Amino acid sequence: MDANPTAATATTALTYSDFVFDHLRADIVQGVFAPASKLAMKDLTARYQVGLSPIREALHRLVGEGFVLSVGQRGFTVPPLTLEDLEDLTALRTLVEEAAIRQAIARGGDTWEAGIVAAFHRLEKQAARFATDDETAIRHYDAVHRGFHTALYAGVTAPRLATLHGNLYDQAFRYRKTLHHKRLTARDIVAEHRRLMKVVLSRDADAAAAALCGHLQLTRKAAASFLADHAG
Asked: Rounded to an integer, what distance in angstroms lies between the CA atom of residue 145 and that of residue 138?
């Protein structure tokens, strides 16, 4: 994504509203707009170089997906990061991902399995380059990490379930970004995801569901600890 995207870069297949929706959503997820910050119309029109109508339409769509808050007559803001929201989000992700992995195991074939193995290989390679003071390495790791979790369900789950998983993953990513300050080691990262890969490929649905739930709880606990330490 360009650092300063403009509507001129949008393809003819997209409306201006679609363009703003995609880029503003990505900017919120990536932390370009900080949690709890106000989304001022004049700033958004300048950043995306479109008029007010597509900005408003995109904002209302993002409200519906949980990436923007509408604050009465005061306009729109980025949702804050809170312990309450983290707990709610983790509970919903647990329900959705358990259903998704059971469906994936029931439907997935050799191509699905190969996709998971390839995605893990990319994650393992990038994890070795992970450094908390290297923004480029962090971005690359985030991309392959998402790729691994997407591969667990890619092409074998119902479309609405896959869409819901993607939406919740992106909302949770705003919390995961708080963990970038931690000195995570490649060994820790790779071991956790290798364990998850193996249990999923074993096709034991109950064990895979339990492993996924445990994986989500690791992130929840770490993010909750960060929020508690930085409360106020």
From this structure: 10
> Residue 12: which H helix or E strand, with range?
none
Q: CA 231 to CA 32: how far, in whole Å?
A: 21
- If you compute the radius of gyration of the chain from its CA atoms, what whole number of angstroms results? 19
pLDDT in tens, 134-192: 778 888 989 999 999 999 999 999 999 999 999 999 999 999 888 776 655 666 889 99
All residues at 6 or more sequence positions from 90 whose CB lies less than 8 Å from its CB, including other chains: 172, 216, 217, 219, 220
Alpha-carbon distance of 8 to 138, in angstroms, equals 29
Degrees, nearest 5: CA angle 38-44-47:
130
Sequence-separated (6 or more) residues with CB below 8 Å from residue 112: 104, 154, 155, 156
The partner residues of 69 in beta bridges, in order of sequence, read: 77
Q: Is 229 strand, coil or helix?
A: helix
Predicted TM-score (pTM) of this structure = 0.85
Is there a contact between 3 and 48 (Cβ–Cβ < 8 Å)?
no
3-class secondary-structure state, position 40 = coil
> Nearest Cα to 15, choosing from 77, 78, 58, 46?
58
Q: What is the pLDDT of residues 64-118, one digit of tens each?
A: 999 999 987 789 999 999 999 999 999 999 999 999 999 999 999 999 999 999 9
CA dist 140 and 146 (Å) reads: 10
The CA-to-CA distance between both ends of the chain, in Å, stands at 32
